[in-house]
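Fig. S4 source data, part A: sequence.
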Amino acid sequence: MSVQEYLDKHTLSRKIEDAVNAAVRAKAPDPVLFISNHLKKSVPSVINNLKARQILDSRGIPTVEVDLHTNKGVFRASAPSGSTSGMYEAVELRDGDKGMYLGNGVSRAVKNVNEKISEALIGMDPTLQVQIDQAMIDLDKTDKKGELGANAILAVSMAACRAGAAEKEVPLYKHIADLAGKTSYHLPVPAFTLIGGGNHAGNNLAIQEIMILPVGAKKFEEALQMGAETYHHLKAVITEKYGSHGCNVGEDGGFAPDISSLKEGLDFVKEAIGRTGYNEKIKIAIGVGATEFCIGTKYDLDYKTPNRSGQNFKSGEDMIDMYKELCEAYPIVSIEDPFDKEDWEHSKYFSSLGICQVVGDDLLMSNPKRIERAVQETACNALLLKVNQLGTITEAIEAVKLAKDANWGVVISQRSGESEDSFLADIAVGLATGQIKAGAPCRGERLAKYNQLLRIEEELGDQAIYAGDDWKQF
């Protein structure tokens, strides 16, 4: 085939002429570069390759990372992982070979991406997020994504979302907003973990975490400063009481002093806030994780304390009384999982009191059916959204819509096993959740999310709206 025949067959002469004319009109200083980019944009992007690999998360446990290739570039994403997996959430696919990573390897999930998922998605338009996600769901054929693995599916879904944003030449958060039908962008209030406990830390504290919310900040940049300063003041408070060895940190970066009393931890945090001078601008949240220490119908607040288990049992009514007292004594505005995941009655009653935001985590597991039940029974008034509990970006968007339609708050949440992927920040802004929980203002995998929010706020400029005092209403 001659050069002219090739040009004619692919109508390249007309396309090149159009590109040259565009360069002339734009008075391009580098015509060759301009023409090259113009031609590249004129070609619709499709997925042409998928490559997955096994990497390590923040706990040193394997997870799935995916590179998704289009003619616009390579787009990478990695799946987060929780310390536990509930019966109502999508499941990670692990190898189970005790000789490799103690059974936690993900080579089977990686293989599923490189073979089955790749074959199904090659040729698809990356902007069609719903179709891409549905293709993987149909390919898996199980209720909880156990065939391909939620870790495999989610990493691909996230990478495809990035590729879709690139195809549309918009930032990731804007693409996510488009997918969700949103037209404005809101920077979330961060829930910084300051003290860790429960199954996230090696101390004797039963509850999982004590957090702060800088609701009085005017910008996210100021909120991050408040969080970091309070964190460092807390380090000084703990050092004065326990010495430097009391400042070891848990999985989410929160300090894990050897305390067993929730009140002692709250006193530490209150003292740290006082030292910053931000008293009226910072509120407190607690993540209880009560399922971890529920035995039958009782709650054992000494379950981590050697030789004391059973000495501090509380009934559901006792727990409600305790929460009431704490909310009166401290500026607590949000409590996560105050009761066991199946203790609907006490959760309903406590929510009805209107004392604070009641966040469903284990109660909901991001499961649409559980969310619908909780809405009907008013068992809580906020959703803790963990994207990997669903497995696709499309399902995450739908879960947020369910919560928003019920006038709930939404907290986009990290997992204990995180990577340096900053996707969480973009989805929080794109879906205007108003709240994000990404751990302490330290450790790279946590700061990746907070630093990305700084960049987004800077890019949006005057269009950036920090949720602030309206954190529950977005």
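Fig. S4 source data, part B ends here. Residues 220-242 form the longest helix (23 residues).
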